[in-house]
Amino acid sequence: MATANESLYSQSWGPLDTLQAIPGPLEKPVPYFITAFLLFIFYFSVQQEKPSIASNAPMLAPKPRWDFTGLKVKYDFAVFGRAVMIWRARQKPDEPYQVNTETGELTILPPIPYANEIRNHDDLSFDRVLDKNFHAYLPGFEPLREKNPYKPALKHVIRTRLTQFLAKLTVPMTDETTKALNDIVGDDQEWKPLVVKQNMVKIVARVSTRIFGGEELARNDKWLKITSEYARTAFFASELLRIFPKSIRFVIHQLNPFSWKLQGQMNDARRIINPIVAKRRQAKKAAEDAGEDEPEYNDCLEWCEEASEEPIADPAVPMLGLSFAAIHTTADVVTQSMIDLARNPEYFDVLRKEVGDVIRTDGWNKMGLYKMKVLDSFLKEVQRINPISMAAMHREATKPVTLSNGLELPVGARITVSCQQMWSSQVYPDPQRFDAYRYLRLRERLGAGNDGAAHFVSTSPEHLGFGHGQHACPGRFFAANEIKIILCHLIMKYDWRLTGGDYKPKTTTFGLTNETDAKATVEIRRREIDVSPKA
């Protein structure tokens, strides 16, 4: 017979029965301990997060008190940042302001007068911005690290050797462009669809790698895949990490699938490039021992070795650093150029005549590319209307700085300069209209010898496509030549047009970033008459 107590405990207690069916913490402790640990770390990190460092400029859409993680304001700027900047430029074009971005508080400066004021400021660092934005202290991000031991050598190579050797690099670039177009686009004389961006990335990766690491790397499909994907992987890994407070990002990095992929790409790159470097060193040593001339490798990999005080221990770092900076930005300009030509087909004949005339007269050389003034003007207009970013000249204050009009920047404050002048009717007549002759006319007005501001590679507060000042894109002279060579081959060898239907290519925006439509497709065919330029 059951006792009173037994009867009490044998009764059904409804919802409590369900709770009793759940294993207790002592039965399966691991999930509970992990959950408790993560909650503790998250709470601790939120409490320990340092207050933001900002300028004294007014803040647009400040973070609500309840948004203690900052996710709402970060999301809002990622989605609406472009619209906010355009609106602000119309309302108060001459005043600085702050916004909450996915990377924290950012002061946005109008280009006049600030672009020239900060262009060479010693206490405003670009490298520190890159280092922090991409969590360069974490494994996989080594090419973006501010204290990367190979950075001085790499900067020297880009600013001097890569620019000085442009005349010698033109023929290898056109040779690789020919091979890449044959392999990737083909020679079909019937119309066929081509997804522009993904194929231009492949072509640019091959042409760039030919110059960065030599012909052997340019033929290595695994290396080309890594260099084509590394920048995008780093972007996605960084964006996911930014969701979390800095104090736990190292832990999240171990759990982040994009971080796993990033570290895998670094390790794969090392497995590919280290044997190539070792083979080169052995060949040099053998030649030296035999009293013969050492083999020459006219590429960035070799130049980095020559510019370093010691042999480069991890050559994948500078090589992926180059790829990160060069491939997607260059491919974006080529892609947008193809789309703009398809939208404005009246420029095909003009460009074909100019390119054909120059190549027949000068052949493939640096001076010939310089003479293509319509193409140069066309490219600068492409970049003006669709730059890769809504702002340029990203900097972080390394010391307290006071700018004109009393703008105060404490240590750690981040700033950037709006590209608003590039679409201003006060600077450019009818700024929304694509005009391939816009900068050609400016050249003619300025006159020979004074027309530098109209060149594709030039920088100014009115055109920040390549930045401005001492941190303006140092590789822009190489990039400009590469873009021109690829477009020359495309223009002379192929016809293309936008596909039919209702879909129109659109620029994708994410915060400050503009990117050509990854889905944009054209119909393309090899031209029936072979009028390709001859090397």
TrEMBL record:
Cofactor dependency: heme
Keyword Amino-acid biosynthesis: no
InterPro entries reported in the protein's UniProt record: Cyt_P450 (IPR001128), Cyt_P450_CS (IPR017972), Cyt_P450_E_grp-IV (IPR002403), Cyt_P450_sf (IPR036396)
CDD domains: CYP503A1-like
Residues bound to heme: 473
One GO MF term: monooxygenase activity
Keyword RNA-binding: no
Alphabetically ordered keywords of this record: Heme, Iron, Metal-binding, Monooxygenase, Oxidoreductase
One protein family per Pfam: p450
Coiled coil: none
Similarity remark: Belongs to the cytochrome P450 family.
Full protein name: Cytochrome P450
Source organism of this protein record: Colletotrichum noveboracense
